[in-house]
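Trying the structure run again after the queue cleared.
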Amino acid sequence: MDCTERQKEIERILAEERKASVDLLSKRFKVSEVTIRKDLAQLETRGVLLRTHGGAVLAERPELVIPHLTRTGENPAAKERIAREAARRIQDGEHVLLDAGSTTLSIARCLRGREVTVVTNSVPVAMEFAGESERANVIVLGGSLRRSSLALMGPLAQAQLGSIHCDRAFLGASGFDLRTGFCCQNLIEAETKRAMMTTAREVVMVADKAKFERTAFAPFCPLKELDALITDAPPARPVADALRKAGVEVVVSA
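Done. Tokens:
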């Protein structure tokens, strides 16, 4: 069995069992632990898994992942209203971090022609400012490309985030849970989002009401670490109470 076949089999094992140890994988494939660790490292760069001490865990549940193009077409009017509200919060000359997501892409469109510095890990967001007449300065983070979200993520992105500071970070989410806060679909992307939160003076979640009706695989933002939420409808009573208790400013877009 060559490395490509072995890595496909490791993916299948993780899809079924959610986690695996280096020791067991080494015995199963009759190769050294060093070889297995190299396989895991390559699979991690592709966003398949997250390495742990002695093994790896599944980074996402593929059956729950919604592709970027599908998400972009969901609730477009609500996302545009949220984006306009977010853009009003931004002052010319500020450094603004936009993560990968359909709502943050709408924010980018609202910022075209503005004199701001945009830091992003999103390929579509970066492309919004590619025109020669654009006035925004754009910094694109490096990292491994997650194709379903067109996000650059992982250790390279996190290392860059550790060396910058932004005025505001605007983050999107795939879902919400009262116990753990906002969540996304990939553990590695969740780690990258957490690193983004540490760079900003103000952390703002942009999430339409549909996000509060579902949860997702990887929590990344407890409410206590959030400064503001911009959404398109007043949250349900339990969510509103939790946000108020955590001191989160809630802005409902007009």
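The mean pLDDT is 90. Worth checking whether this holds up in the mutant runs.
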